[in-house]
Write a structure and sequence with these properties.
mainly alpha, 8 helices, 84% helix, flat
Amino acid sequence: MIKANWTEAAEKRLGLFADFLDPLDLNPHFITSLGVFVSLGGAIAFAQGYLVAGALLAIGGGVCDLFDGVIARRQGRESTFGGLLDSVGDRIVDVSLLLGLCFHYGATDRHFWVFVSYVALVGSVLVSYVKARGEVDVAGLGVGFLERGERIGLLVLGGLFSIMPLALILLALGSWFTVFQRMTLAYEKMEQLDSVQLQEQADQLVKIEEDTND
């Protein structure tokens, strides 16, 4: 939700600087990769306990993540691989930032927060996995209370305002609630799909029987 809204706003603002940006011929894949590496810097900063620096680097990586698609559309370079690269980069960043926090709390013997960070990490991964795996069979599973933009936003706020424990609790609870929302929707859609397929099979058997009797 956040990314969609910000990307739309970014597209409008980029139009104001088109004359400046176009000659640079920025490669969208480079912007995507740059965002991942900047965010990995944020993960390293988190691991070392520099939470404000980590949050600022996560913001930098997020800006790249917002603008790579905008630049691709402006240059006519949208591609299927670009979408895959963006998704893989998102997963790397999601896991790395939370893993960095696991290391940070582990190094300071705050084991409860290591556990909370781990729960948030697994929940974040499952939010994306349920959508990716479920949409192999049914469409429209990209719903939920805490999507990726909101999850990264919580980590950024936690680092900037020294409220990371609160941010992690909200992230852990919100991620798992979103997993539940997507699983519930997937169940409903897949039950409908199975019913339709069973009815089609039954209709085919009836037709075969009728053809045989004729």
